[in-house]
Amino acid sequence: METLLISSKGNNKYRTVFLILGIICIIGSIIFFMTNVGAKTYYSRSQESLKMVGILITALLFCFGLLAFLFAFVRCNGYINVYEDHAEGKGLQGKGMNTFYLSNNQIRSVTQESYYLCLHTDIGVFRIICDKKSRLEIMKFYAKNSF
């Protein structure tokens, strides 16, 4: 029977921050567009360039908001479950999210990069966003039980 030792389901703090940031950027871009760019005003030739800058700022704000949403829903939904003999979960590998099932002898080392827990294997590096307490517990487990 498999015994679950440590479980971490991402970090909701980062997800919340990126969701709020995305909402603020998208609402800000809509308000900026309605007040500055989309207003029915007549522009002289010298003001046409200012209108183009306003359109560019609006587009950048909107894109930044969409990227924040994408980051919140794609990168912050990783998880890891550590059992006595293996680890399984979902994490970033390369450019995409991949699920993994790794026996303890496949895991070469476990490190921390900012808010990511990194599992180094022969296949590659899996990066999982998890809270600090879980990161430290997992690192301590693999440091104590060198396989």
Unreliable stretches, pLDDT < 50, 5 or more residues? Answer: none
**How many β strands by DSSP?**
7
Structural class: alpha+beta
Q: How many angstroms does the end-to-end distance come to?
A: 20 Å
The shape, in one word, is elongated
Biggest sheet features? 4 strands, antiparallel
Topology order in helix (H) and strand (E) letters: EHHEEEEEEH
Mean pLDDT: 82
Strand order of the largest sheet: 1-2-3-4
Tally of contiguous helical segments: 3
The radius of gyration is 22 Å
Q: Strand fraction band?
A: 25-35%
Q: Helical percent range?
A: 40-55%
Key structural traits:
single chain, 147 residues, alpha+beta, 4-stranded antiparallel beta sheet, 3 helices, elongated
List the helices and strands and how they pair.
Elements: E1 4-8, H1 12-37, H2 45-74, E2 79-83, E3 86-93, E4 96-103, E5 107-113, E6 116-121, E7 125-129, H3 132-144
Antiparallel strand pairs: 1-2, 2-3, 3-4, 5-6, 6-7
